[in-house]
Specification:
Number of helices: 10
Shape: globular
CATH class: Mainly Alpha
Number of domains: 1
Order of helices and strands: HHHHHHHHHH
Radius of gyration: 17 Å
CATH topology: Heme Oxygenase, Chain A
Strand content: under 5%
Structural class: mainly alpha
Length: 212
Amino acid sequence: MSSGLAERLRNETRSLHAAVERQGVMGQMLRGGVELPVYCRLLRNLHAIYAALEPVLVRHRADPCVERVYAPELQRTPALAADLDDLDEPGWRTQPLAPATEQYVQRLQVLDAEGSRAVIAHAYVRYLGDLAGGQVLRRLVAARFGLAAGRGTRFYEFGPVDVVGALLRAFREGLDHMPASAADIDLIVAEARAAFQRHGDLFDQLMVPSPG
């Protein structure tokens, strides 16, 4: 039986999603005006979020709900590190993170310690955005910075179009067929809304140059 979670997430985060994708540095990217140092700051902060999120999904993949959306081929931490090695300064791992990212990582650590199914919301917000909108961003980034095929855009690469489509379908089907209670579903939807708000805070903060 379908839980209807995918539709609830889509419907109850739609307005937040639409606002956040035009907010701060993300809106600047979509307008084609982001500079490389700013883009690298974005990647560094996303790397920190994925480096916190993905081990949580691995540790809790035995949970029958988390298992439904856990897919190793979706992991983005190595791809982000490779892009940063291509595009950023050699010491990018030691650069300071935005306060919103620090708070995001702390939230993921809390969910990890609690074994909360709310972590599924963060997989939804990140991976579905990467699989869908990320394909547009890949072309924008490559054109903006004159990148050769595959260089600096690994973050957005999941394979051919049919593979991307299959991954999207599998993730949505996983959401709809997880054995989640009504309380679990409410929790995941609320956490997804909060996750979009956290992204909006991050995108706004990245518009401000980092010290030094």
